[in-house]
Amino acid sequence: MAARSYGQYCGVTTAVELIGERWAMLIVRDLLVGPRRYTDLKQGLPRIPTNILSARLKELQEGGLVRRVPLMNCGLVYELTSYGRALEPVVLALGRWGFQAMGEPEDGDIVTGASLTMALRTAFRPDAADDAEYELHVGDVALRASVNGGQLMVAQIAPPAPPVDGRIPDGEPDAVIVAGPGIRRLIAGEITPAEAIEQEELDVVRGEVAHLESFARTFHIAPLKDPVIV
Amino acid sequence: MAARSYGQYCGVTTAVELIGERWAMLIVRDLLVGPRRYTDLKQGLPRIPTNILSARLKELQEGGLVRRVPLMNCGLVYELTSYGRALEPVVLALGRWGFQAMGEPEDGDIVTGASLTMALRTAFRPDAADDAEYELHVGDVALRASVNGGQLMVAQIAPPAPPVDGRIPDGEPDAVIVAGPGIRRLIAGEITPAEAIEQEELDVVRGEVAHLESFARTFHIAPLKDPVIV
DNA sequence: CCGGATCCGAATCGATACTG
DNA sequence: CAGTATCGATTCGGATCCGG
Fold it and tell me: Domains of chain A, with CATH numbers?
């Protein structure tokens, strides 16, 4: 362990020693959505080797970021401690930055419930947010995003399984948006909502199309200024 | 490369693929202070193997984060592109989070100019900042921190070498603070300035002691609330 | 000295198989 | 469901070497 230390007395260094190992940050990303069982994590991170998942969970527990909680009925879940949850600003900042470099999806890239949830949180602009209920489908992930008074709540819905907790928002959504990876271009502001529909990047299958404007204002990550000069 | 991909179309994932490798974030941290030559980086990261430094710099260039700039006179420097500089919020968030877990320094831990500079930026609170000039010594690192109208500028000074550029702030500092690692406890608010001096964690060798109060207000990272309950 | 490249043993990661 | 065990493929760390 001392051999793996960076040998500096510094906050950044300490942080990287705790969550810098491969896969660790993605486990935290998924746990930021909510407590998850081992199998859920494995499913949300399909390419993670099971021994690595197991090793990371152990390290994250030793670091005090994650707790292992036996469930009353059956099984057990991993959840973030308050110290682990304090990583949210880091994950959001990382997501915002990485969003700029995403480009088009590679072959075999997937979108998971957790990644889409954090992407929405990443792109959320409380000050520009109109109150609304969106249902968003990307690939086979379905989310309900509730915007209320500058607060965002995201819940995973239906396919494939019913949500664990009963907190599915009731009532009809204002808009049901079915999108592909092209939704990135909408959030980046590379295309307008009208163009997005025209180019068939996405579709509003229920509700008024006007809500898509609202969506695009609410969820937005401005691209970097031209990197050519400076 | 495809084998090293996390296989997800997600901002966090993309970011981690670009700067998640060992040492990469620390190289960025150092470059956020300013352009550096290969040898400077190696000196600021004493434990990095030279082949790794070389590999990372190559990867960071391919990722568009870092540029290699030949100097007119002699040698060359590495500097962040605007895309690389956009990582500053990430590094600051990481530093702020990691600060909580720093504890006491391990044997052999060092403090470098870059790490201390970023630590000050991390802890800086523009809204609570009084205008002042501080000279801060920790170990054999010496910094000049200028606070002006909610703006912070940090420059490395004297020992061992004169600064590269001529931008050493002129005039006497309001306070010269000589500290050890115990300065962490002051910034965390675990001890008051008076206690810090009393316990010999640090010393104000020039200027009025009152400026230390100002320093502690200006540079502060509040600890997490008790993590026992939640 | 600067800016690396090369070589090699040690540690880590990835893939798959297997178990209570 | 929740992991261990195993093993080959990579990567990392440490040291040395090399051309300007």
Answer: 11-86 (1.10.10.10), 106-218 (3.30.1050.10)
